[in-house]
Amino acid sequence: MQVTALDADLIVCISAFWQTTCTAVRAGEEGFVIDSPVLPHELDALPHVLGQAGFPVSGLLATHGDWDHLLGRFAFPDASLGCGESTAVRLRAEPGEAQRELRDFDDEHYVKRPVPLSLGAVQSLPVPGRLALGDGQRELELHPAVGHTPDGAAYLIPWLGVLVCGDYLSPVEIPWLSPGGSVEAYLLTLERLRALVERVDTVVPGHGGPIPRDEALRILEEDVSYLRALAHRGAEAPLPDGRRSRSQRQIHDQNVAAVTS
Hints:
alpha/beta, 7-stranded mixed β-sheet, 6-stranded mixed β-sheet
């Protein structure tokens, strides 16, 4: 797991698997962990990493309901999990789905975990909305981010100039239409994110590590072009430069199936 301190009050941990990001943000004596690393030893290390940096963990947040973003309770089993309203609805409608998908992943990759995943009571947060931290002088902004999945929220941290946007604007992964996602909703989210990116210095996507604003805007334009081509040309849509690996072509094939079904 790679650990990067973007600020004294913000640390990003990048998993060795899928480069999934986990962001810890602090305001005074209160802090939240957004999303999670994937592998057991990374989750075991997370409390030690944050403890050494003096980061309190008041709760966990998730950008969306995909299982690889919901593993924070392995690291902090007593912490509550908060998420946007649409993700809370998804988790209630799919009881046990994240746990089943995690078991499938672990079986495929020979991963052993000490205990099953328990999400506990999930707190639904209004989106758009704000979440006060510390003494109330700092607020996270929650903005809707759907299209990759039918649920999701991006977290803007205005006092640090950082946007944590979930599975959008990735430098390593093309736009992915998971079940319930759509080209139309994804494009609307990208336009919403454009205005947010212009307000920050750094973007933390769900996969690939922190990127500066200009790179995020470049990726945004590439993703818009790819999705528009996907809608009109299907399988013939060209993949963005630098994201044309075998795994990205497999995602593209799934996207084609989604838009032609």
